[in-house]
Amino acid sequence: MGVHNVNGTLLNGGEIDASRPQALIYELEEGGKLRLVGIEFIVFAAPWLASNNNAPSVLAGVYCESSSRSPSSAAKSFPAQ
After folding, report:
1. N or C: where does the chain have the smaller number of CB atoms within 10 Å of the terminal CB?
2. pLDDT digits (tens, 9 = 90+) for 46-57
3. At residue 59, does pLDDT exceed 90?
4. In angstroms, rounded to a whole number, what is the distance separating the alpha carbons of residues 56 and 44?
5. Which of 78, 12, 23, 9 is nearest to 45 (CA)?
6. Measured on CA atoms in the order 27, 20, 60, 58, is the torsion positive or negative?
7. pLDDT tens digit string along 6-32?
8. Residues 53-57: contacts with CB within 8 Å, 24+ apart?
9. Inter-residue contact 3 to 23 (CB < 8 Å)
10. Cα–Cα distance between 10 and 36 in angstroms, integer?
11. Residue ranges per domain, the chain?
12. Hey, how many other C-beta atoms are within 10 angstroms of the C-beta on 22?
C-alpha cells in the first residue's frame, strides 16, 4: 500500500507525461523515514477525452479502462507522518 502523494493538478491535466507522474508512492521505514518505491500515472477520463479528441487511452494495442469517479472525489495529498 504505502504512502501515496497525489498531485491533484496533474490528475485534471488531461495528459500523461513520463517525466511528471500524478502520484508518488513511498514506503515508511524505521525511524519514520520515507523511501520512494513507485510512481503512478493517473488521469481523469473527462479531461483526457477533451484533450485527446475523445479517444480512449491505448497501451500496447489494448484500450485502457476509465473510471467513473469525478475529479471532485479525487484522492487528497496527505503530509508525511
Report:
1. N
2. 888 888 777 766
3. no
4. 11
5. 12
6. positive
7. 998 888 888 888 899 999 999 999 999
8. 57/16
9. no
10. 19
11. 3-71
12. 24
Residue with cell 502520484: 23
Burial pattern 44-63, b for ≥16 Cβ within 10 A else e, equals bbeebbeeeeeeebeeeeee
Rounded distance, CA 23 to CA 5, Å? 5
Task: State the alpha helices, DSSP H only, in the chain.
Answer: 8-11, 45-51
Q: Which residue has the cell 501515496?
A: 4
Rounded distance, CA 15 to CA 47, Å? 8
- Vertex 50: Cα angle to 73 and 16 (nearest 5): 75
